[in-house]
Hints:
The protein is 49% helix and 21% strand.
Amino acid sequence: MKKDHVYLLTFLGLAVVTSVVSYFSMNHLLEISTNHFLQTQIESSKREANEISLLIQHQVENGLPKHTIIKNLQSSIENTNTESGFVCMFNWSGVEICHPNPEKIGQQVLPEESFVQPVMYNELNPQDFYNLLKNKAETGGIREFSEEGRSSEIIYLYPVKGTDWIMAAHANINHIKDRMQKLKTNFIITFTMSGILLIIISLFMVRLISGRYEKNLEKQNEGLSKEVVTLSKLNNDLLLYKEKKERPDDTHEEKKENSLVKKRILTYVKDEIVSIEQENIAFVYTENSITYICCLDGKIFHSNNSLEEIFSDLDSTLFFRANRQFIISVNAIDKIYKYGNNQLKIELNPRSPINIIISKNRASAFKHWLRG
């Protein structure tokens, strides 16, 4: 798989996870923030309605004419319906007496046109108010009204003692929705920028970590490549050596050198003495203080001589002392492997019963011997 494809999949995965987490987190935080805002608005409207109700009550008790009270209240609340909340006053029959919009004065407030929350009932729940604004559906004590274009709803009522007047606290729906939309927009911008930044940083960290990992792999691959080249050379030298041995045109010096070495090794099978040609020997090894001679045809013989004594009688151009346990013939070497820390593993044909490992101290001598 190409690196660019991996990075693309990583980017898409981070984008999906970040988007899902941001979506649910944003909605949860938006709901909490909006509920807090609505709670503040409800408390502010309640406080304003109570204060005005007490003020009017005080004026009535001091004998101030009602028309003067109504005139003063109307002048003080006129054109305040552009804010998040405002107050109005109507009588027990539902007729508007004072309203920020003078055109509303004298109109009837019908029960089915607005939600009325009397002071003696349960307090208005901000969650219910939020669901009404968000879903426009009936919830809690709030219901959807026939007048869809209505710009405000009564969320709190407080009667004026000694009169038939009722102070009503309104919530400006349009203004509140605008505030909610701005809050949502800010959340979207914040989460989007944070998500993009998180994806970029995460992708950068992935590339940084993967880059270091790739460098380590490249170094390991370079080392393996060098080892493969070395092993290839060894195996090539082995093939060249075998081809050289198969040629009939041996030089006089080689014949003279070989004549100084014993051509046969004596061993036994039970009570019978057996003479083995050196060229037929694949390897010699010891196990449990017993010396075994394995031939190229797979036959195995025993010897009373030690490994050192046998090696001294063998042709050093054909045989190599691999370790304390093995003497191997170049004619039996099948494959050479890199093993452990600069060690070599030799695979023979026929197979040896024990792994043949050449230590790193003997590896250089083995390579020199194999090159001839």
